[in-house]
Specification:
Keywords: Cell junction, Coiled coil, Tight junction. This protein is mainly α. Helices cover 95% and strands 0% of the residues. It has one domain.
Amino acid sequence: MQERSARQDLECDKISLERQNKDLKTRLASSEGLQKPSASFSQLESQNQLLQERLQAEEREKTVLQSTNRKLERRVKELSIQIDDERQHVNDQKDQLTLRVKALKRQVDEAEEEIERLDSLRKKAQRELEEQHEVNEQLQARIKSLEKDS
């Protein structure tokens, strides 16, 4: 934005200097008709030279600013491409992690189901063991009873 403003200022200055230069040349041409150059003619000539030098300096500055602007625009474009690449990389990683999380959740669900199944089998086996203990105790009591009777 500042470069654009500076560029516009330089263009305005250039136009103004060219106008002044034309005016000075017109004055110079009219004063050349005089036989003896006056002090004002020398002063105008000196002023013209200064304006020419100023114009050249501003044109050089304009060229430098344009070059700098082009370099900055290239750098912005490079950084924009880099940011887009990094954004895509992050999105790819996010997608991979999402898939990994889903797979892990599925594994957790399967493991929980297996734990429930095994717990159910354990409880069933525990009940059967307790029933066998009761049957065993009943049989032991009957054996003792039969041994006493005989």
